[in-house]
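Lab notebook, bench 4. Still working through the backlog of constructs that have no structural model yet. Next entry is a single chain of 148 residues. Request: give me the structure tokens for it.
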Amino acid sequence: MITWNEVIKYATSGNLLPEKRVQRTKQEWQELLTPSQYKITRMKGTEAAGSGDLCYAHEAGLYTCACCDTPLFDSTIKFESGTGWPSFTQPVALNAVKYEKDTAYGVVRVEVMCNVCDGHLGHVFPDGPAPSGLRYCINSASIKLKKT
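Model written out:
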């Protein structure tokens, strides 16, 4: 289980290596993704709170990257955070996501990205439920639910 201190360490000192890498050109990403997915995942956008299709999804399954299908989060660790975005307590693997310090908008946050394709997912905060205390606040457009 990853801790907030480890998140900060990865965000400032480097991330774990992914099992593989997926790289595409800007044009390839634009052809593969919807305009909303492209804006959020490739241009670090965000969707309005409560507007995402997966915000209130409760089906069992695995949440994968909308860009490259990498498994990111399991439905068993999804929770209702009240923020308006899908929220998770842990990634499915320590090297599934990568972390970067984000100082946009005059605040310090930790950005979460797919470690395989660098797609922007959202941010992680240290105000989640036990046992990890983490809240991965993820844009619906950046993930897909593969139901089981």
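Notes after review: The mean pLDDT is 96. The chain has three helices and nine strands. Flag for follow-up if needed.
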